[in-house]
Amino acid sequence: MSAHRFGPNFPRLLTAALLQEIPFALMIHFPGHLSDLGATEALIGVLYAASAAVSLLLRPLMGRVLDLVHRRTVLLVGGLINVAVIFSLITADIWGPYLWVLFLAWRTVQITLFTAMLTYGADSIPAERRTQGLAIFGLSGLIPIAIGGYVGDVVIDTFGFDGLFVLAGAIAFVSWLIVRTLPVLPVRGRQPRRSFWAALVQKNMLPLWFVALLFAVGIESLFTFTRTYVDERQIGTTGAFFAAYGIAAALTRIAGGKFYDRVPHRPLLVGSIVAYGTGLGIMALAGSEISLVLAAVVTGTAHGAVFPLLSSEVVNRARISERGSAMTVFTSLFDIALLLGAPAVGFLIVGFDYLVAFMAAGVTLIIGAVVYGMWDRWMVKTSTPFVSEESLE
After folding, report:
1. Structural domain count, the chain
2. Domain of 85?
3. What are 307-325's pLDDT values in tens digits?
């Protein structure tokens, strides 16, 4: 499979995205730095929740900028800010306002870069291969997860957290240099540009927002609580779980991506969300390392299919002139899940146990997938037939 089949810019774009996400993966160790500075788990949680809240507040502006300014310009300006902030973290050796400002700025810029890179990819990949292209593009987020934890441990043990920040900043700068070689892609649509809020409430997008939020809650349930779950049940390891999860997701995208543009997306999405809910159910009942790995494989496989399918549907249904706003709404749902869904699962864990919490999350996803399928089908039947702008070009 040649990467050039997804457009002449795809190899460089994929490389830039991969290098952009590695610093983000390395920063999963950042809470350790905060702890060394005297922050408690509660204060760390507040800081991360604040970053999600700030990001959500800035989403309308972020979406508008992506629709009005060339994606490459956003990537170049945001990339420089990202590099500067990461290097500046070396000077933040006291828990206080200065560190807060740097961290909130970094998280906001990182999310902006991720959204802009994803939107640029959607712009540059030919429409007939978009879903497969986005599936391969998504490997830029999965691979760093697999290597970030281990590499970060080695660097911190050898050079401390300052070494981690230097490495992360250097890699981010290399990504910026590659982005400089990418061309400006003029993106114009036949339909006029509306506001960010118009993209949010567009009728045929509502089922997608619903099912994407469900999927995000499922992801945040696993990524937030797997470590404590493994510690309490004393089965397997967090590393083994996410290694199996990441490998399953990557293999699904590589092997299944070529079929995504040839089959109807709705039934595949419903089936994949149901599979994710089933994986959460297996997690709830897991009593051995084998069953834990099985849960990881099932959820990872579902993840590998869901994200490119949802991304492609969002791009296909949005007006070309509002693609930046639509992708911003899509990525914001993961912040909402972190703010609302993860705490809800946490309260269930505290009030009951992991079995009840993960089972409730799994059942919610399964029921929600069925609701999405019926809602989306009904909307297609009762609405004016949807025709992508690109089919008219």
Report:
1. 2
2. 9-181
3. 888 888 888 787 777 777 7
